[in-house]
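In these records, each integer encodes one residue's backbone shape. Here is one protein:

___
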Amino acid sequence: MRRTVFIGGNPDDKPDLIALMKQIVNGDEQAFGQLYESVAGPVFGIARAVVRDAAQSEEVTQEVLVEVWRHAADYRPERGSVMNWVLTLAHRRAVDRVRSVVASAAREERAARREQLPEFDVTEAEVEARQEREDVVRCLKTLTELQRESIILAYYQGLTYREVAERLSASLGTVKTRMRDGLIRLRDCLGVTA
């Protein structure tokens, strides 16, 4: 973007922006070119201050200047200068851009989280848990009485090997062996791989 700088020139050489706006309303492209030279630098500056990204600031600047061309008839001199009107458009457009970028990033983040986390189906989980319980009960029935009782006391009632041996009036070594054998049979019956 080129910025018009008046070095050593007469400040009165600046174009009359209100007169240019009137000509732009009538479709005068040359007048728009002069207005463009006067406002493009400040518009870019406002956009850059809000958006922070140079490429997006350039896009905002172009969008604002197209808006000035299309809506020049909306300018009202009694409400303020042409420069203030254009810079207000620039600020609004830059803020909209930032909001859009933030909203887009938030949407992408939500979408990424949805893709990472599988949907939890309570009914499916309950059915699977019930099926697993039925499988364990079925497999427990295939064990000997001592194996089944030892495993139930240890795993469902939380007793130690010694407490299981005392409860069943069996030797500690026998209980350990039966439990080991019973757990191997349970594993095989349930199809669990070690």
